[in-house]
Specification:
The protein is α+β, with helices and mostly antiparallel strands. The chain has helices at residues 17-21, 38-51, 60-69, 97-102, 128-139, 183-195, 206-210, 239-253; strands at residues 2-4, 24-31, 75-82, 86-91, 104-113, 144-149, 154-157, 161-166, 169-173, 199-202, 214-219, 223-230, 233-234. The chain has 2 domains: 2-91, D-amino Acid Aminotransferase, Chain A, domain 1 (2-Layer Sandwich); 97-253, Alpha-Beta Barrel (D-amino Acid Aminotransferase, Chain A, domain 2). The strands form 2 sheets. Strands 5, 6, 7, 8, 9, 10, 11, 12 and 13 form a 9-stranded mixed β-sheet that branches. A 4-stranded antiparallel β-sheet has the order 1-4-3-2. Helix 6 crosses helix 8. It starts with a strand and ends with a helix. 38% of the residues are buried.
């Protein structure tokens, strides 16, 4: 279903700078009984609007009203916001139990992330490069594209953030490596010590990733997804990854915000 400017009709989108120039932001939110980690999503969305100089602010009340009107439960809610438009759409959750059992494979993209661009850190309508590169990698038989930055350090996936394990420590690229500050990424960083693991953010090489004892990727819809292969390198199963996923799944199942 689709909700455009508080209307269930589909023919009332206003042509603004979001349509003409991509000046708009979006969020993709997992909804169970309620939208998961909604406060973090709203904060990132509104920061993005400020960065793009869009004079709007989205509230929890607007999103809860949309969820109710669209009858959205156990689904994906997407919100797109530009100068004159606020659009909500829903779709089914695409990830299956078999995905988590087998894990995902990553292929390295030839495109490099620009850590010096403000747009790198905004989930904006200018998202087509991610989609193109992910399509290329999927056509090669992988599940997700992996980006390095212009300095050659690990950055992120096309639709995910990346973590790896070495000597029982969790490592993830710092935001200044040119990556979107993911919502589940933030969750893992916040709660890793509660689970009993040390986590370090920094600059890491592709070679370090290939030597990891375990790798996982995150986004708001998939949650925690183990990685079984990066290019031609098979990645080991990790008890650390399993424990992080178990903790996050319990959190989502008991979410009460």
């Amino acid at each position: 279903m689709i909700l455009i400017n508080d209307n269930l009709k589909e023919d009332e989108i206003s042509l603004d700078s979001g349509f003409f120039f991509g000046r708009g932001v979006f969020e993709t939110i997992l909804v169970k009984e309620k939208p998961i980690l909604l406060g973090s999503h709203i904060k990132r969305l509104n920061i993005g609007l400020i960065t793009l100089n869009v004079d709007k602010k989205i509230t929890k009340e607007e999103i809860y009203a949309a969820v109710l009107k669209l009858n959205c439960k156990n689904c994906v809610l997407k919100i797109m916001v530009s100068e004159k438009n606020t659009i909500f759409t829903t779709r089914q959750i695409p990830y299956k139990h078999s995905d988590y059992d087998g894990g995902f494979s990553l292929g390295l993209s030839e495109v490099r992330r620009n850590a010096y661009s403000n747009l790198t850190y905004v989930k904006s309508f200018n998202y087509v490069e991610n989609i193109i590169e992910r399509d290329k990698i999927i056509n090669k038989g992988y599940n997700e594209a992996l980006f390095l930055n212009t300095e050659g350090f690990l950055s992120e996936g096309a639709v995910s953030n990346i973590f790896f394990i070495k000597n029982g420590i969790i490592f993830t690229p710092k935001i200044k490596c040119g990556l979107l500050p993911g919502i589940v990424r933030e969750f893992v960083i916040k709660y890793s010590s509660s689970i009993g693991f040390e986590l370090k953010e920094g600059e890491f090489t592709y070679g370090e990733l290939l030597e990891a004892e375990g790798v996982f990727i995150t986004n708001s819809i998939m949650g925690i997804m183990k990685v079984n292969k990066i290019d031609d390198r098979v990645i080991k199963e990790s008890a650390v990854v399993s424990e992080i996923k178990r903790y996050y799944d319990i959190y989502v199942d008991n979410y009460k915000e």
